[in-house]
Amino acid sequence: MSFSVGLERLLASISSRSLRMVIIPKVRTAVLGAVGIASGTALAAMNDWLASIDRTLVEAASGAPDFLSPVAEAVMIFGSLVGLVAVIPFAYLRFSSFVIVVELFAAGVIARIVSDLSKQAFSTPRPTIEQGINVREVADSFSFPSGHATFAFAIATVWGTRVSSWERIAVFGLATAVAVGRLYVGAHFVVDIVGGAAVGILVGVAVRAVASRIVPSR
Length: 218
Fold this sequence. Notes:
mainly alpha
């Protein structure tokens, strides 16, 4: 091998190492930075877009006729401890077991505690009249997640995991009606009730899982 050929290979090797050690990391950093900026911009735009859709949906729900108020108020009871007290006797008659009573009560209490702690953690403001929303119920607590939705879906999960599909549809339908009622009275945004429903389902699943270990046979 001649000296000139060896020198060319050496220079090529050095250039290759330099490319890998200097240029490529800089290109990678630039590309990642550009992707990060683009992603951040897209997420911010999507967040604004979703927030706009959320407000539009709440405006539509809260703009429904006032004569629906008694119906909404009656349905929303099932997202509270008062509603749970009314449900428990029917649960005992339906399943002939005190276990379901304990599960429902535990799910309701835990759902309430979790939602209250989450409200303090997120400190999200509730809808206001200034946003074009018909606020029928003024609450002094924060908005996310909806306590009623959390409670209702926790109860629905405990009940719904024990029954057939049609009965399951009915109990989750009632929980959904509770959540929609919160939009009707202008107390929450859509993200609040969706978050509450998710938390409530997790609480219900957790309660059922713990109960199945403690009392494996029904």
